[in-house]
């Protein structure tokens, strides 16, 4: 196995480098919650906002500590954080509308070899020349 200890990136803790110890740790609720918290940053903000709007604020969390973390049935976002999340979602909607309204903009970001051929330049070519 190599080394004397194993470091869990999600939980920020060291443990004995043994298969059974790691399996036990990875199946624990604290590791599962820490991993879910980490993976939450890669979720779609619209999905998060829709789920959090349905929840009521968590009294335990805002009083100091909620042991359920992301598995809590109540919201752990403050009103200020909810407004920031709404701004992010609105900005994403605006960006998508701009892309839908201007499909040519996406083609300009491509390298020259991947852009569609310009037909006006192609028609100006002299195809009657002989090669070699």
How would you characterize this protein structure?
Helix content is 50%, strand content 6%. The chain is mainly alpha-helical and 132 residues long. It folds into 2 domains: 1-42, Double Stranded RNA Binding Domain, CATH 3.30.160; 43-101, no CATH class. Strands 1-2 form a two-stranded antiparallel ribbon. Strand 1 (5-8) and strand 2 (13-16) form a beta hairpin. The longest helix has 23 residues, at 79-101. The mean pLDDT is 85.
Considering the chains and any ligands shown, give keywords for the structure.
132 residues; mainly alpha; two-stranded antiparallel sheet
Could you outline the blueprint of secondary structure elements for this entry?
Blueprint: E1 5-8, E2 13-16, H1 19-26, H2 29-39, H3 45-53, H4 59-63, H5 79-101, H6 104-108, H7 119-123
Antiparallel strand pairs: 1-2
Helix pairs in contact: 3-5
Summarize the structure.
This protein has 132 residues and is mainly alpha-helical.
Strand count: 2
Helix content: 40-55%
Structural class: mainly alpha
Counted up, domains total 2
Low-pLDDT segments, ≥5 res: none
Major β-sheet profile:
2 strands, antiparallel
Radius of gyration: 26 Å
Query: What is the N-to-C succession of helices and strands?
Result: EEHHHHHHH
Q: Major sheet: order of its strands?
A: 1-2
Question: What's the tally of helices?
Answer: 7
Approximate shape: elongated
DSSP strand (E) fraction? 5-15%
Distance between the termini: 65 Å
Nearest-integer average pLDDT: 85
